[in-house]
Design a protein that fits this description.
single chain, alpha/beta, 2-enoyl-CoA Hydratase, Chain A, domain 1, Lyase 2-enoyl-coa Hydratase, Chain  A, domain 2, 9 strands, Enoyl-CoA_hydra/iso, Enoyl-CoA hydratase-related protein, fatty acid metabolism
Length: 262
């Protein structure tokens, strides 16, 4: 991966930064960002400890390129291609073993809101707004919104948010769990990068296990989850990360999490 003006991805201090939208086409979802993001996520090795999702422009991501939809010769085929590309990106985000942080400034609408819902930690600011946006152009959701949103806010609230195309302000987004917390509008990306860097140099093996446990919990009973947790914490105890964490605690020193990477 090279850091050049045409690249939507770059690696900085263990953080894989992916621009999901740019100022082009009104900060709509970037196909190039999706393609490059997919490739970067698939190629990511142990040098990558966190993923940072950003928008480059006035917004995080204002949705799909509606003008592009309108000008397509075959709108159905065009939307299917876009959705499949977008969903390949979402699948890679869901499958990655490291924490995913989103820096959500301005609008996160349509596809942008869908992306936010897949982040482990999403930071916004007082001016951040989220909106399903699909009904406004007569569309149904993509990007997994119909799957993630009910799991965050409940089925009834998810139906209301999508059907009424509600604009969700920053404070409400935090209250409902769509955003993790707010920082000053001008500090969203810098704080998200600081957080991603911190996570990138943390116990990455433990983070991978945590992500799997949480994401898979929806498909298990409590008893099944307890069995999986017992097996996971037992495996953690003999992993390089777990050994180093316990030894560092007993020896009253800061752990060297690099020992848990391969």
């Amino acid at each position: 991966m090279t850091d050049n003006p045409q690249s939507h991805v770059r690696v900085e201090d263990g953080v894989l930064r992916i621009a999901v939208a740019t100022a082009e086409h009104g900060t709509s979802l970037s196909p190039a960002g999706m393609e490059q993001g997919i490739a970067a996520l698939r190629e990511a090795g142990p040098e990558i400890g966190a993923v940072l999702l950003v928008g480059e422009g006035a917004n995080f991501c204002a949705g799909g390129n509606v003008h592009g939809f309108a000008s397509a010769d075959d709108r159905g085929a065009h939307l299917l291609d876009i959705a499949n590309l977008f969903h390949d990106f979402i699948r890679e985000i869901a499958a990655v073993d490291v924490p995913v942080v989103a820096a959500v400034h301005g609008w996160a609408a349509g596809a942008g809101m869908s992306i936010v819902l897949h982040a482990d930690i999403a930071l916004g600011g007082p001016a951040t707004k989220l909106r399903a946006a699909y009904p406004s152009i007569g569309f149904t959701p993509d990007g997994g919104m119909s799957w993630t949103l009910p799991r965050v806010v409940g089925i009834a609230r998810a139906r209301e948010i999508i059907l009424t195309d509600a604009v969700i302000g920053a404070d409400e987004a935090v209250r409902t769990g769509l955003l993790s917390r707010l920082v000053a509008d001008g500090e969203i990306q810098s704080e998200a990068l600081r957080l991603a860097r911190t996570l990138a140099h943390g116990p990455t093996q433990a983070y991978a296990g945590i992500r799997r446990l949480v994401s898979d919990s929806m498909h298990r009973s409590l008893s099944e989850q307890l069995d999986v947790e017992a097996a996971a914490i037992s495996a953690s105890a003999t992993s390089p990360t777990g050994v180093e964490g316990v030894d560092a605690f007993v020896e009253k020193r800061r752990p060297d999490w690099s020992l848990g990477r391969n």
